[in-house]
Amino acid sequence: MNRNELNPTASPEAAYGARLRSVREARGWTQEELGTRMEYSSVHISFVENGRKPPTLRFSRSADQAFGTTGTADSFEHQYREIKHGSLLEGFPEYVKYEARALEIRLFEIGIIPGLLQTPAYARALADGDVRRGTITPEQASERVSVLTERQATLVRSRPPTALVVMDESCIRRPVGGAAVMEEQLQHLVEFAALPHSMLQIAPYGIGERRPFNLPVYLLTMPDWVMMAYAESQARGHLERESTFVQATLSAYHQLQAEALSQTESVAAIEQLRKGTP
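Structure (tokenized):
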């Protein structure tokens, strides 16, 4: 049987596959033997090793069980998650870890509905758009939606965080995915605003230059009451813990809230948009 030469530098998936083969061969196992231990076919093992099929979370956990690497720093699950986050903005995976434990989440978004408030159909439409532009693969699109689902679980945990959301008016006026997707999304925003631990405000176009942010901004208050700020550019995200910067960002956020519509006015604006009223 011919043995293909692997190039682990070709892509993160190729590196994963090359490592899988290396660990398997170090045990003296054939692809069939590893497949039996993992409950996958030998063809599936071959495809992953050769980079023809991307690994999944289930596959990675099965590999860890077979090789005894579950929970270690060198686990295949850990490598899989690094691949998974490869389609996310630099710095964002670090932010997500803190977001899941935050007592309070403040955020401001421009152009699109914030991820925490996106419906599955809206999120999928955005991801599919990136696939059509060739910036991510279909597999990465699915992983991006999966990450979003995991993040949204934060809002429905047993003791949910207080979520204070300000959206630029462009977020609700930019059509994404068609009329049905937008109707469902706008309805979801109205429902979010009705939750006891949430606040939703729209920053209207009319505030003009008084809007303090021109990029998305996130502020987290952690269980020890330490605050941190996360901001994004087109290329990367950055998590900031330095108190002077965080306090300045918080002050600007308070100014934004003062300029934005109240929650009652914001919900009314969304309902008008749903009815087709300008």
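The CA atoms of residues 112 and 171 lie 4 Å apart. The first helix runs from residue 12 to 26.
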